[in-house]
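Feature request, filed as a ticket because there's no other form

It would be nice if the structure record came with a short human-readable summary line next to the tokens. Right now we just get the raw output. Example of a typical job, pasted below so the devs can see what we mean:
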Amino acid sequence: MQVAEHQLLDLRPKFKETRKKLLSARHLPGEVYSSPEIYAMEKEQIFMKYWLSVGRVEEIPDVGDYYTFQVMKESIVVSRPAPDQVVAYMNQCLHRGVEIAVGRGNAKEFSCPYHAWLYDVSGKLVVAPGMKASEVELKNCSLRQLHVKVWRGWIFVNFSDEPMSFDDYIAPFEQPLWWFQGSPRFQCNK
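Raw output as currently delivered:
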């Protein structure tokens, strides 16, 4: 992170150009977008730490519905294993790390293309062909689960092992919506 911090300090004078009035403002310096060190710092300090909106519940209305999503080159699966449950987990087989799901659809399980390890739609390992019972304890194996919260139909995930409280995160967004709470709902285009 130190390299990225030094790069940002060196670029600080150029940032003044971004704060001018619209017609005379300039975009951020190109180095901000192309530095691997700044990218790594943003990934760690922002995208892997805070709650991120990854979709709407309407995208997975039925049990077994799922979609895959990329966040900073990390592939995740968002799925509905039960009518009132939404889960998200890393799209990476525990055995060799290959993606187990592609795109979107409806499934009862996902099979790893390498060795046919089978996971249910909640990310729990169901079968591990070729492994002895002493090598894999199925009941304790599942894909890395992410923290998930649904707010007003929006699905949020958090990669952190100890995420900030979702209520604290969302509070600034709740206040401006006080007038909307209790408003009648309309269905359009159905």
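Something like this underneath would help us a lot:
The mean pLDDT is 87.
DSSP finds four helices and ten strands in the chain.
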